[in-house]
């Protein structure tokens, strides 16, 4: 018995490939790979582009959100000053990663792609992890829990929260859930990390009498701007809101503006909190791990529980 030749196997009994098949079959090599078919890129479908000037990018199916992409550079402007002006290493690292947030946000809004969304949220999760790391550190030092074990715990807590914040929306999208829902869950997880940092900073600065000074001003500025910016971006994770007056202006770009101010002030707050924790570590007498002496409990007992003389 004999095996058919490769030509006869490909082209039938005549041994030739039909002209029609040759014309319809593109030649793809390692050096010249085939271009993706039109519309093969999957878009991240939410209403970030509401009110923006959206341009299709050829036949790829991708879309450029002009003003949102440009306003993403606000995060670079927020992070760059921290890189060369912050006093502590963690605040400088935060500033550098905030520049990455700007480029990640630009990558997403310049394509509106699903992969771009993931590139957008990863550096954001890293910056939140840095803040959560220092917030955990502050609570540990105040409670007298120091040493390698304490450091390991705060690494695990901060990295684990960042991992969950990124993995959860990806898993939701892979399960076929709405992009609006994935965006909302991401915003909740990311915002919770930032809120934890804000609460710890507020308590620490209050305890040290710093709320009326520059650290407190930076913190309150960050809180005010993020709340204002969030009001401009509710339509991104609540479907059906992109209509009427919301289609007049690119409100998500205003979120970029106000949240970049928050990002810069959070970097300064991180710098101030780090210096405070370092001073506490250097001057405090080693404490036993007594929960009664923790800052949060002391503040609750002193300021929030009713006194017997006020009843």
How are the secondary structure elements laid out?
Blueprint: H1 6-11, H2 19-24, E1 54-57, E2 62-65, H3 66-71, H4 74-85, H5 89-109, H6 114-142, H7 148-174, H8 179-207, H9 214-231, H10 251-283, H11 295-304
Antiparallel strand pairs: 1-2
Commentary on this structure:
By secondary structure, the protein is mainly α. The chain contains eleven helices and two strands; from the N terminus they run ααββααααααααα. It has helices at 6-11, 19-24, 66-71, 74-85, 89-109, 114-142, 148-174, 179-207, 214-231, 251-283, 295-304; strands spanning 54-57, 62-65. Strands 1-2 form a two-stranded antiparallel sheet. It starts with 5 loop residues before the first helix and ends in a 7-residue tail after the last helix.
Strand order of the largest sheet: 1-2
Instruction: Tell the overall outline.
Output: globular
* Helix percentage range: 55-70%
Main β-sheet, in a few words? 2 strands, antiparallel
Question: Can you write the helix and strand succession as a string?
Answer: HHEEHHHHHHHHH
pLDDT < 50 stretches: 1-25, 33-40, 285-292, 303-311
Q: What does the average pLDDT come to?
A: 82
Class computed from helices, strands and strand pairing:
mainly alpha
Quick description:
This protein is mainly α and 311 residues long. It is built from 11 helices and 2 strands. The chain has a two-stranded antiparallel ribbon.
Question: What key attributes describe this structure?
Answer:
311 residues, mainly alpha, two-stranded antiparallel ribbon, 11 helices, 2 strands, disordered N terminus, disordered C terminus
């Amino acid at each position: 018995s004999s095996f058919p030749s490769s030509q006869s196997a490909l082209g039938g009994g005549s041994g030739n490939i039909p002209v029609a098949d040759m014309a319809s079959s593109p030649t793809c090599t390692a050096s010249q790979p085939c271009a993706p078919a039109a519309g093969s890129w999957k878009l991240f479908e939410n209403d970030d582009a509401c009110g923006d000037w959206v341009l299709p990018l050829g036949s790829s199916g991708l879309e450029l959100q002009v003003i949102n992409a440009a306003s993403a550079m606000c995060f670079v402007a927020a992070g760059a000053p921290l890189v060369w002006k912050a006093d502590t290493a963690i605040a400088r690292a935060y500033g550098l990663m905030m520049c990455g947030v700007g480029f990640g946000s630009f990558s997403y809004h310049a394509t509106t792609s699903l992969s771009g969304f993931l590139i957008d949220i990863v550096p954001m999760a890293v910056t939140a992890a840095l803040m959560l790391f220092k917030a955990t550190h502050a609570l540990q030092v105040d409670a007298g829990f120091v040493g390698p074990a304490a450091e390991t715990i705060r690494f695990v807590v901060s990295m684990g929260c960042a991992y969950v914040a990124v993995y959860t929306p990806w898993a939701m999208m892979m399960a076929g859930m709405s992009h609006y829902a994935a965006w909302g869950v991401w915003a909740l997880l990311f915002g919770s990390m930032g809120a934890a940092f804000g609460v710890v900073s507020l308590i620490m600065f209050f305890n040290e009498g710093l709320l009326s000074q520059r650290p407190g001003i930076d913190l309150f500025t960050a809180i005010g701007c993020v709340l204002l910016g969030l009001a401009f971006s509710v339509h991104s994770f609540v479907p059906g809101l992109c209509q009427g007056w919301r289609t007049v202006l690119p409100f998500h770009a205003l979120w970029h503006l106000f949240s970049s101010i928050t990002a810069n002030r959070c970097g300064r707050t991180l710098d101030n909190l780090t210096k405070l924790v370092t001073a506490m570590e250097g001057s405090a007498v080693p404490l036993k791990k007594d929960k009664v002496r923790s800052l949060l409990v002391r503040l609750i007992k002193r300021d929030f529980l009713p006194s017997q003389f006020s009843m």
